[in-house]
Amino acid sequence: MSTAVLCMAYGGPRSTDEVEAYYTDIRGGRKPSPEALADLVARYERIGGLSPLPQITQRQAAALGDELGDGYQTYVGMKHWHPFVREAVEQIAADGHDRVIGLVLAPHYSKMSIGGYEQRLRAATEAIGATFRVDMIPFWYDNPGFVRFAAENLRAALGDWDAEDTTTRVFFSAHSLPERILADGDPYQDQLLDSSGLIAAVAGAPNWEFAFQSQSHTGEPWLGPDVLTSLAAFCSRGGKRAVVAPIGFVADHLEVLYDIDVECVEKAAELGIDLRRTASPNDDPRFISVLAGVVRSRSGR
């Protein structure tokens, strides 16, 4: 049996010339206003020009293929830019695989996130008339290896800080989504809270809370509280030290390098709070080993 592992991520422009088209794809084909485009470009400029996500995702997939070894071949498919999921599916079909394991590089399930990737994978498979079996991994936040890995990163970020000191607090975070997902029984928020508790317990960090980040301005309510608001509330209670652990993300990109490393850092400085962030998994060999375990568990090999 020949198994393809399709590693899926959000995507990002590979040059400044692609930013507008990438943003347009995110917006469902509607071009952004000049002001919105300028704001996005300015954010990229603050983190060095462009997001490293496309390159990191390729490295993750390549390392995962090496870790899995014979019988597997890894591919990359992006949600909003090249190589799109459909492009990857076409290549998988051309290579003659009879099974595809869909692995979204995000640990927690939401119909709007993981569900969206699955829709793209299945639609592309149907569109080209592929006959391979599709097996989607819905979530993997509770994988014991991932919990241990995230706890190790959290302990490293805490360093010499006393995790039991109530003036030190861990803020787990993930990308916010519109509040309307709760009415549909979406498990996203519950999984994030469960994930935070699992990691905090293994790390020995009893003083923690969860906060969302990176809300979009769409004119509807989004899940909160926002991490910036939570930091301010912590400061008002006498908080002095904070670690932000963005458990919803597994690679350095705009939502980590700007929303945390710029916005959160500036907010913490304004509040007089010492701030640290856990390291992103990226292509850390320990993390790649976790992903390999997730894939093997799904494949039965």
Topology at a glance:
Blueprint: E1 3-9, H1 19-26, H2 34-46, H3 53-68, E2 72-78, H4 85-94, E3 99-104, H5 114-127, E4 133-136, H6 144-158, E5 168-175, H7 188-203, E6 208-213, H8 227-236, E7 241-245, H9 254-257, H10 259-271, E8 274-277, H11 285-299
Parallel strand pairs: 1-2, 1-3, 3-4, 5-6, 5-7, 7-8
- Residue fraction in strands: 15-25%
Order of helical and strand elements: EHHHEHEHEHEHEHEHHEH
The largest sheet, given as strand count, sense and whether it forms a barrel, is: 4 strands, parallel
Question: What is the terminal separation in angstroms?
Answer: 11 Å
Low-confidence stretches: none
Overall shape: globular
Helix content: 40-55%
Please report the number of helical segments. 11
How many strands in all?
8
Mean pLDDT: 97
Alpha-beta content class:
alpha/beta
Radius of gyration: 19 Å
Q: What strand order characterises the main sheet?
A: 2-1-3-4
Account of the protein in words:
- With 301 residues, the protein is of the alpha/beta class.
- The protein is built from eleven helices and eight strands.
- The strands form two sheets. It has a four-stranded parallel sheet, with helices on both faces. Strands 6-5-7-8 form a four-stranded parallel sheet, sandwiched between helices.
- α7 (188-203) links the parallel β5 (168-175) and β6 (208-213).
- It is globular and about 60 Å long.
- The mean pLDDT is 97.
